[in-house]
Amino acid sequence: MKKLFTTLSNIWKIQELKERILFTLMILVIYRFVCQVVLPGVDPAQLVNTEKSGILGLLDMFAGGAFSKVSILALGVMPYISASIVVQLLGIAVPSFQKMQKEGESGRKKLTQITRYLTVAITAVQAIGYVKTQVPEAAILIDHTMFYVLSGFVLTAGTLFVMWLGEKITDKGIGNGTSIIIMVGIIARLPIALKQEIESRFTGNSGGLIMLVLEIVALFAVVMFTILIVQGVRKVPVQYAKRIVGNKQVGGVRQYIPLKVNAAGVMPIIFAQALMFIPNALIGVFPKLQDSWLHQYSDITSVTYSLTFAFLIIAFTFFYTAITVNPTQMSDDMKKNGGFIPGIKPGLATSTFIDDVISKITFPGSLFLAIIAILPSLAVKFGIQQEFAQFFGGTSLLILVGVVLDTLQQIESYLLMRHYDGLMKTGRVTGRTGIPAAGGSTAAL
Questions:
Q1: Taking the CA of residue 351 as centre, how many other CA atoms within 13 Å lie in the half-sphere pointing to its CB?
Q2: Residues facing 235 on adjacent strands
Q3: Residue 26 maps to a domain
Q4: 248 with 160, same domain?
Q5: Same domain, 290 and 365
Q6: Is 424 part of any domain?
Q7: Which domain covers residue 243, as residue numbers?
Q8: Residues 301 and 434 in one domain
Q9: Where are the membrane-spanning stretches (predicted)?
Q10: CATH number assigned to the domain comprising residue 351
């Protein structure tokens, strides 16, 4: 406990770090305040039963409840994340985007600009769908046509405002702005979920305090397990040959390549959830399908839903890892810099070895990711309220753990630069890959 207070006092002694933390907190307060502002022309009194479930509930959690409140920030940063993912995938498949990725800072600026324009287009389309499907007609106080047009502009401006806030946090605050905004939105739902769970446990014969304590212990264990998966790496040793550059000798040291057990991050879960939403969408368009086999995918706690969801996550983990991790390029870069893996020939043999290692660690990583993803449905099966069960796994938990680790890593780097002790007595906080950033791999879903 004494070391904790010492570390906190050291953080406060570093002027730049203190200013960045206070700036981040100020931006987050502004964001949470604006989230409460309802769209113009909407009667808030008519929005009493707008709680969302399923994929919409997940979007509402990411937006900190703004989605169900019909706020001007209802769409949050999700259109920006979608645009970032599209640009990232184009960087893998389209040569012109690959060229921009290799142009350094100028290429990054071009990709960022493209992402912003794409965000506007995606938000405009999603805004129309949102106001037509999620806003009750009884809540609209003005002419409907005027409301739809006005809401489209306001929701688009709201998403751009949130995107701007995220960029400001990244530039002048601490951590990745987009990731932190999503994390705050998720955490904002925790008090409500915890309150509902406590009320349910003390109502009737639901186990009372003992069951509540067991749930908290189980949640703590799940968080520890998730941290293990997020931080897990397979270290491949690399030896660099000695070289003479000018009058100095460089190289001759042994380093390692940290291959992540979960290199795909939260992307497989996001892709799988998008596909799992299709059956519900088909039932909504064609009501006759309600009695077909597609109805099994309406219940997230069903065995069919969980098994299909897990299978898709495993498949997408292999797919996303294959397109983002390039063993051939890693081998070529190593060869150019005079590096080699001990006992492995440079070139094709090195590429094959790295690919084999990635394949071996990706399967357990994808399996653990699938387990984390279906834990919320298992929690509901054990009687936990669905709102609180969302914190037992899935995208929300992975984002929370990843963003916290990433932010702590930045804080620790400031402490170590000023010759203070880190956040822990032993070891160092290792960051993770988070929400996709334009023009590169993921940087906080």
A1: 11
A2: 258
A3: yes
A4: no
A5: yes
A6: yes
A7: 200-445
A8: yes
A9: 21-39, 70-94, 114-133, 145-166, 173-194, 206-230, 263-283, 303-325, 361-382, 388-408
A10: 1.10.3370.10
Q: Count the Cβ atoms, other than its own, within 10 Å of residue 164.
A: 13
Kindly state whether residue 182 falls inside one of the protein's structural domains: no
Reading the chain (445 residues) residue by residue, the pLDDT tens digits are: 566 667 777 777 788 888 888 999 999 999 989 888 888 888 777 776 555 655 666 677 777 777 778 888 888 888 888 888 788 778 777 888 888 877 778 888 888 889 889 989 888 888 888 888 778 777 788 888 888 888 889 999 999 999 899 889 988 888 888 888 888 888 888 888 888 888 888 876 666 788 888 888 988 888 888 888 888 888 888 887 766 666 666 555 678 888 888 887 777 877 777 677 777 666 666 666 666 676 676 667 778 888 888 888 898 888 888 877 888 888 888 888 778 888 888 888 888 888 898 888 888 888 988 888 888 888 888 888 877 888 887 777 888 888 888 888 888 888 777 766 556 655 566 655 444 444 444 444 4
Note whether residue 55 is domain-resident: yes
What does the block give as tokens for 225?
A: 């397990």
State whether 1 and 125 are in the same domain: yes
Task: Kindly state the helix (H) or strand (E) to which residue 131 belongs, with its residue range.
Answer: helix 105-134
Cα–Cα distance for residue pair 190/213, rounded to 1 Å: 16
Alpha carbon distance 334, 278 (integer Å): 43
Count of residues in the chain:
445
User: Cα(143)–Cα(45) distance, rounded to whole angstroms?
Assistant: 18
Q: How many structural domains comprise the chain?
A: 2
Same-domain status, 100 and 227: no
Asked whether residue 167 falls in the same domain as residue 303, the answer is no
